[in-house]
Design a protein that fits this description.
Shape of chain B: globular
Mean pLDDT of chain B: 95
Strand content of chain B: 35-45%
Helix content of chain B: under 10%
Strand content of chain A: over 45%
Distance between the termini of chain B: 28 Å
Number of strands of chain A: 11
Order of helices and strands of chain B: EEEEEEEEE
Largest sheet of chain A: 7 strands, mixed
Number of helices of chain A: 0
Helix content of chain A: under 10%
Low-confidence stretches of chain A: none
Structural class of chain B: mainly beta
Distance between the termini of chain A: 39 Å
Oligomer: heterodimer
Chain lengths: 123, 112
């Protein structure tokens, strides 16, 4: 089956860190850009970060720049999101989402989503 | 406040046609970037419904269609069914903002 499976979420205090993982299966992971999209409880979707297929290009929403780092290990078919200096407003369900092949970043859309991993930032 | 503006809610009776609008600006939809639509069923994961303004992925019924004009786009659903009750989001790219890939705030579709 073609799928993405997130893990690593949990409860963390403000200022703390978490590392999310997204394991891919059923497709050639190294050929696709992958993104993180989050959804705060009861709210809409917000794109957070993206990485090109090779890992050479990374993108972040301004609110996480300098705090979050996206990376990937194509030998392990896994995407990561290192989250530092976490804030209450980072509380959300974090999805990884695949972009279609051979698309310039400006034309990305998200054609495969994982089930998400919940991050709760609270004291 | 989302960069792409959608109505918070729409409703329709079974069998009817409903449309959901997505209004952007010259830095996103108006810059000729594609508009994409997602369906999120209650408690579910977002699912791609329409890509590049008008295209349906395989498996999406032709009751769903998309259009785009100027700085706006629309999702139309015909022959409304109870299982269409969900949240719908539009998405595009914005070259001016801090969040490059932007979503609409979402529209809750209620089937009466």
């Amino acid at each position: 089956d073609v799928q993405l499976l997130e893990s690593g979420g949990g409860l963390v205090q403000p200022g703390g860190s978490l590392r999310l993982s997204c394991a891919a299966s059923g497709f050639t992971f190294s050929s696709y850009a992958i993104n993180w999209v989050r959804q705060a409880p009861g709210k809409g979707l917000e794109w957070v970060s993206g990485i090109s297929a090779s890992g050479g290009n990374t993108y972040y929403i301004d609110s996480v720049k300098g705090r979050f780092t996206i990376s990937r290990d194509n030998s392990k078919n896994t995407l990561y999101l290192q989250m530092n200096s976490l804030r209450a407003e980072d509380t959300a369900l974090y999805y990884c989402a695949k972009a279609p092949m051979s698309r310039g970043p400006r034309y990305w859309y998200f054609d495969l989503w994982g089930r998400g991993t919940l991050v709760t930032v609270s004291s | 406040q989302s960069v792409l503006t959608q109505p918070p809610s729409v409703s329709g009776a079974p069998g009817q046609r409903v449309t959901i609008s997505c209004t952007g600006s010259s830095s996103n939809i108006g810059a000729d970037y594609g508009v994409h639509w997602y369906q999120q069923l209650p408690g579910g994961v977002p699912k791609l419904l329409i890509y590049d303004n008008t295209n349906r992925p395989s498996g999406v019924p032709d009751r769903f269609s998309g259009s785009k004009s100027g700085t706006s786009a629309s999702l139309a659903i015909t022959g409304l069914q109870a299982e269409d009750e969900a949240d719908y989001y539009c998405q595009s790219f914005d070259f001016r903002l801090s969040g490059l890939w932007v979503f609409g705030g979402g529209t809750k579709l209620t089937v009466l």
